[in-house]
Amino acid sequence: MNFSRRSSRHAVAVVALSAALGVAASALTGCSSAGATSDGKPNVVVGFYPQEFLATSIGGNDIHVTSVAQPGAEPHDMEITGKQVAKVTDAGLVIYIKGIMPALDNAVANNNSEHGLNLATVTTLKGGYKEIGQENGKAGKDPHIWLDPVLMKKMATAVGDRLVKIDKAHAATYKQNTATLIKKLDALDSAYKTGLANCERTSIVTTHNAFGYLAEQYGLTQVSIAGLSPDNEPSPQRMTEVKTFAQEHGVTTIFFEEAVNPKYAETIASEVGAQTAVLSPIEIAHKGEDYITIMQANLAALRKALGCS
Ligand SMILES: [Zn+2]
Hints:
Rossmann fold, two-stranded parallel ribbon, globular, alpha/beta, 2 domains, four-stranded parallel sheet, binds zinc ion, 10 helices
C-alpha cells in the first residue's frame, strides 16, 4: 500500500483555466473544476487510513490521494504541517472524521469547508467512555465509526456520491467501485454476525476505547483501560475497575493494539490470569493488508477470546 503518496503537481494551468471559466461556471456546478491536477484528476486529501481505504477503493486511478497521517503513527491529536494545510486548501475533496485530528478539522473549516466531507455525519456520534467509570476518559463524542462495517457502508456511499459530484466524467466507475466495496462490507458484516452469534462470553477488555460501535452492532460489551485516545494514562482506580470487571466476567483476553505500548494490558492480564492479544483499531496502514483483511483478523481474535463456536 502506498501510504505516503503525495500529488505534487498543482498546475498553474488549472488555476488559470478556473479563473478564465470563472466563478459563474463553478457557481452553477458546485465544485466541479476545483482541486483538479494538470491531468484533470481530482486531488483528494484524506485524514488517516480508513478514509484512505475508502478513497482508493472508490476513486481508483481516477483520483490523486494524499494522506495527512504520518505512516505508522496513531492519528489521535496528530499535528499537520503547513504544506499539508496547503494541500487541504487546494483539494477538490477532503475526507475526514471530525474529532480525531483537530488540526485537520480546523484546516478544513478555515480553508476549504466547501470541499470537506466529514464522515462523522453519516451517523449520530455516541458519547465516549460510557461504560464503568468516567474519571479518566476525555469528554466528548466517540469518533471510531469505521470499526462498524455497517457504518463503513454508509461512509462508502458518502464518498462515492461526492466523487460522482466533483468528477462527473468518471461517475460510472465511482458508482461501480462503490457497489463493489459495499458488497465486500456486506460480506464482512455477515461474517461478524455469524461469527459472533454463539459465544461463551460477550465482554471485551481493550486498551483504547475504539470498539464501541463494533460492540454495539454485534451485541458485545466493551470496557477500555484508557479512554477514547490510546495514549491516555489510566488512573490506578481505573486499573482496579477494569481488573474487577475482567474477573467478574471471566475475561480470558486483554486486547491491546499495534501502535501503543501494551504495558497496561499486560499488567491487568497478569493480575487476572488472562492472555493478551492484538485487536486493531485500524488507525494506521498495515503493509500487505487492507481494512477488510484487518477486520477479518480482528474477528478471528474476538472469536478466540470469546469462545465462539
Ligand atoms: Zn482511536
